[in-house]
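Budget justification note: compute hours in this period were largely spent on complex prediction jobs such as the one shown. Inputs:
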Amino acid sequence: MSIVLKDLCKSYGDQAIVDHLTLEVKTGELFVLLGESGSGKTSILRMIAGLVMPDEGVILLEGEAVTDVPPQQRNIGFVFQNYSLFRHMTVAENIAFGLKIRQVPRKVREAHVERLLEMIGLVGLGDRYPSRISGGQQQRIALARALAYQPKVLLLDEPFGALDLKSRVQLRENLKNVQRQLKITTVLVTHDQGDAFELGDRIGILERGRLLSLGSPSEVYRRPRTRYVAQFLGEVNLLEGIVKDDTVQVGEVSLALREETVPHETGARVQVLIRPEQLEVATVPELLRGTFLAKGDVQSLLFAGASYRVGIRVRGLAGSVTGPAGRTESSVLFAQIGLGTDQAAALAPPREVAVGVSAFHILPYPALRILVAVDRSKEAKDALQLAVTLSKTTQGHLTLLGVADHYLDEIRTKQGLIQAKKALAEESQEAETLYRRGRPTEEILKETNKSRYDLVLFGTRWRPSPRRLLNAPAFEVALNSPIPTLITPVPAGRLQKVLVLSSGEEICRSEMRFIGRLSRALEADVTLLYVQPGPDPRESVLDYLQELLQVLRNQGTRAEFHVRSGQQIPTLLNELREQNYDLLVFSARRMKRQKTFPDRSSADRFFSHLNRPVLVLNAGECPESEEPASIR
Amino acid sequence: MELINAQNLMASFRRKVPGLSWRGLVMAGLFLALFPLLLMPIGAIFIFATRDGLSRFLNALSGAAAQFALRLSLLIALLTSILNSALGTLTAYVLSKYRFPAKRAVEILINLPVAIPTVIVGTSLLLLWGPLGLVGKYLDPLGIRPMFTMGGVLLAHLFVTFPYMLGSVKPVLEELEVTYEEAAYTMGAGRLGTFWYVILPSLRGALLTGTLLTFAHSLGEFGATVMVSGNLRLRTQTAPLYIFSQFEAGNVEAANAVAAVLAVLSFTIFFVLLRVREGRSTQRGAVDVNRS
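Corresponding output:
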């Protein structure tokens, strides 16, 4: 092993840039660290070079611990993003610099520089100054300069960052040739998948200072370990499926599973990842070479040079397609296919087509990530208990958040966190803890806005005092957080009967999927309740309820709907009590818009009557694509 | 009446020569103002100096006091330039590379000599180091008298010209990327080696500019020098002091001769500076074009 990093940590201020990173780079290998800006990749490179000292951890170069060795003595070559060629030196002097420092005789130096110039294909440019040569040439000079003194390890920081596509492609080839020729152990840092795929013997994908995935380019591309990696490496169609024996059920279609896919068991919910180039499109299903997936209408057809990009709105698939930017558009799949002009004309939208799959990859369904707001009240213990239940049934991740709004509360809050963690440990439940200073509502909202959680959980008792209620962080967070908020005022047992209050139009499909996912994990039955003021429900309402029901059933959740007439709140309370539901779900969207509770005490009365866990869906607007079709 | 005529004239003038507009008039006015303000006085020095023939001019120059004054001025200017390039570069390096508390205050303080009248600099030096000064009165019994010596003059010149070196070196240092030094480190160069081979050479232009500026200012320094030197003939009298003394004594010829030499020196430095600056800006321009 040429480079070994063990448990490397580095943080600036509060922010961890590199987080317990362990990595081995084999001798002679070209290893690519791929990550977005801020993922810590450059910091890792600088730590290997000795330009930055790690806070913790060990760095070994060829088996020798160099963690405390200054850069001068590490014998590494480093190519900087801006090349940092010395402006006052000629190209030849730049290349010879490392040799001059090593006191190599002038004659030897000159011969060596000539050889290097030849290797990078820039013979005759030795007398030029860096300001008089092109960016691509500068890059090659920087490479030659870093290789001149035969370093043990070559490190490259975004070496193609400042170049146009054409020189990029050329220089990649050049670098790969040079690296092969010299068999020098190389670490290259980039944010560009193209660099990584073309150059890397192996790729490591970084996010927030952690190594998410490691493997050969085709391995990480075809069989990514997480959804983030899959999406980072390119566009991917993301569907939901259920494993049945050797197949995965997607909508009404079963796709045969291959041996090497991730461990799975019958009944497990999985994500099905299909790259655009793994989809095919034909006018009739019989013409498909792969497995038939769904029928749909061509929605868009874009010429993209070597291939066409086809958007197909498909029917009967419970799923979503998520591009690299995290855009979600329900039931639209993107295919990338090579087409002749005539074939392309035949697919002009809104042509009805059949979509087939040639290959796919499955991932376990993501675990529920739960943020638990902890204080030292009795209700917080109820919340913790519920969090454990949820986490056990969904293989969830728990994060405990304590907020002190006054410095005097600091110690108590921290103690509360420690106690909570201990209590969880007794039930062999792991949890992360977070401590914040500030106003609880603001701090919790800040955390929920980070898109690191699926659910925020509170324990709070609805008190008869209106001030207590409306000032309570739970209430504010429920109204304003972008993720659903689960509030439990009482110790919750098993949640087996879920009542979803759906009055007309406020629940998005994505939220319904979330409810389905939660209910399925809890093995709970779901009832949709619609309370209407008049005697007969409008037809559109029934369509809407049917649609939501379908979303739930597609996910394998048992669900039904009830339509009741009467006043909304009394009817709801009545229904809750008579049928003995364990969990009430409603959306804060309309509540917020229509000011359902004209004053605080009416809200208070309502909540104090509930006396059971409540899941409040987020108050923001539905993205258009997530609105139920029946009300659009 | 005349005014109206003038207006008519101008109007017709403009009509006849369409290219000559306000721009031409403003430029002409500027030259008319600059000529008596700048060019004529400088011209006067040379006219007066050479009016009575070259031999008289050379004669005036060859006097012992004149010779001494010119040499002293050149020596002081040279020493000031050398010392201040070292001091200024070091200060610029520290200021551009390190962060420390009160850094901004230090930056302002260092540039203060530009704002303070030089006579006041001289006075304050006297009040500190002079035989009756705050520190000087303890040194005086020991036989150490920094004031009214060449050392005192040098001290005053270092003080007064300090910001010029700093001002030309610091921006260039700040422009160098951090990775510039790091690149040298990764290739095996130590801190000193990096400074010597990498940092210093890239400061060449700036150092030359700073040195020339310092030299020119030191050569012409009067206010502080007259205070700290005591204007002692053949001991501390620099060229500007000599010119002033001779002029006051009525020896206009002697004063003029030395003034002419000083003026020629200053012009030379000025034109060299101009060349250096232009050279640097075109070079930098080339790099910029390349980057974009």
